[in-house]
């Protein structure tokens, strides 16, 4: 949950998760829709799917007991070199290096490492530096303290914009501080230009039900629910379904959100239908669900906002 998400955001999700799925076996055997619903709003839903895959693998190969060896932990779905190293060092006191954004910033400044820290040569050097530090800490059985200290130093003192160098316990060993070049490290990578994307969504009602569909298993936000929608791409023929042409629509609301470098505007419309219910469901590969039951379904973030507007009667 803490991958790409702040602690203050994660805490209520974690507390509810541990109430609902307190053991590895309960997660392994849970329905995927339940898992996605508990994750709803955290984004990057592949993390939730990998978490469940890892739980199943732990049950199948490790008798529902979390492994303690680095290679076995690294083999779990969704766990990379950094996470495996953090688990081994912090939970088990092993001499395994870590490298997250905070640690990259700390080491880049201490050693005045020039260039993009995410480039292959710099990544190799950073991992080597991290490994050397934790190896030295192992002599004092301090692997956990060392790695947690590096992360905490980056999170609270060695900040990206205005580092608190006057409070830094290692400033006397920091080459960037010594040479007054703190702002030069780490060198930020060249950012991709934001992509502006427009979508149109349709909140189609029939009696006390609304038309919704589940995203394909191969798509982004796989198996999450959404209202029928399509993307409008400039200078390309409209992909607006012909079934919508005969329906009288009114504005429902506009949602703006960001996914990585995509700046998305989702404009929604609404209408009510009578005799076309079955035909529309087939046309959109969707189904009619009671509006009162929508809150039990896991929706992607933008469509969850539309769901809230619909259930609260706050469309604009």
Report on this model:
This protein is α+β, with helices and mostly antiparallel strands. It has two domains: 7-184, Hypothetical protein, domain 2 (Endonuclease III, domain 1); 195-312, Nucleoside Triphosphate Pyrophosphohydrolase. Helices cover 41% and strands 16% of the residues. The chain has twelve helices and seven strands. Strands 1, 2, 3, 4, 5, 6 and 7 form a seven-stranded mixed beta sheet that branches. β1 and β2 (209-214) form a beta hairpin. The radius of gyration is 24 Å and the shape is globular.
Secondary-structure element pattern, one letter each: HHHHHHHHHHEEEEEEHEH
Count up the domains. Answer: 2
Work out the oligomeric state of the chains in this entry: single chain
Beta-strand content estimate: 15-25%
Outline the secondary-structure elements.
Layout: H1 7-20, H2 24-29, H3 32-39, H4 46-62, H5 70-74, H6 81-92, H7 101-110, H8 120-138, H9 143-156, H10 175-178, E1 195-206, E2 209-214, E3 225-226, E4 229-232, E5 250-259, E6 262-272, H11 277-283, E7 287-290, H12 301-312
Parallel strand pairs: 1-6
Antiparallel strand pairs: 1-2, 1-4, 2-3, 2-7, 5-6
Helix pairs in contact: 6-9, 7-9, 8-9
Task: Describe the structure in brief.
The chain is an alpha+beta fold. 41% of the residues lie in helices and 16% in strands.
Question: What descriptors fit this protein?
Answer:
single chain; 316 residues; alpha+beta; Endonuclease III, domain 1; Nucleoside Triphosphate Pyrophosphohydrolase; 2 domains; 7-stranded mixed beta sheet; 16% strand
């Amino acid at each position: 949950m803490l991958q790409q998400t702040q602690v203050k955001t994660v805490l209520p999700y974690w507390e509810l998760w541990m109430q609902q799925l307190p053991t590895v076996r309960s997660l392994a055997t849970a329905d995927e829709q339940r898992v996605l619903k508990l994750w709803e709003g955290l984004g990057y839903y592949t993390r939730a799917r990998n978490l469940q895959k890892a739980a199943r693998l732990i049950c199948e190969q490790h008798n529902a007991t979390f492994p303690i060896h680095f290679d076995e932990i690294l083999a779990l779905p969704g766990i990379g070199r950094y996470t495996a190293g953090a688990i081994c060092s912090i939970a088990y006191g092993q001499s395994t290096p870590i490298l997250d954004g905070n640690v990259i910033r700390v080491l880049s400044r201490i050693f005045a490492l020039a260039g993009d820290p995410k480039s292959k040569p710099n990544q190799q050097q950073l991992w080597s530096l991290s490994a050397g530090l934790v190896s030295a800490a192992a002599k004092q059985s301090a692997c956990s303290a060392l790695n947690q200290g590096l992360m905490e130093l980056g999170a609270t003192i060695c900040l990206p914009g205005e580092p608190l160098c006057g409070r830094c316990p290692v400033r006397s060993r920091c080459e960037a501080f010594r040479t007054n070049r703190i702002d030069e490290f780490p060198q930020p990578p060249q950012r991709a230009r934001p992509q502006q994307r427009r979508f149109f969504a349709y909140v189609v009602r029939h009696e006390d039900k609304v038309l919704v569909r589940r995203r394909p298993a191969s798509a982004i936000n796989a198996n999450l629910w959404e209202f029928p929608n399509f993307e409008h791409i400039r200078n390309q023929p409209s992909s607006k379904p012909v079934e919508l042409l005969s329906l009288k629509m009114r504005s429902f609301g506009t949602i703006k959100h960001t996914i990585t470098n995509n700046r998305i505007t989702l404009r929604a419309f609404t209408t009510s239908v009578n005799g076309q219910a079955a035909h529309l469901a087939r046309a959109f590969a969707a189904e009619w669900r009671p509006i009162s039951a929508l809150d039990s379904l896991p929706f992607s973030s933008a469509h969850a906002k539309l769901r809230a507007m619909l259930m609260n009667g706050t469309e604009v």
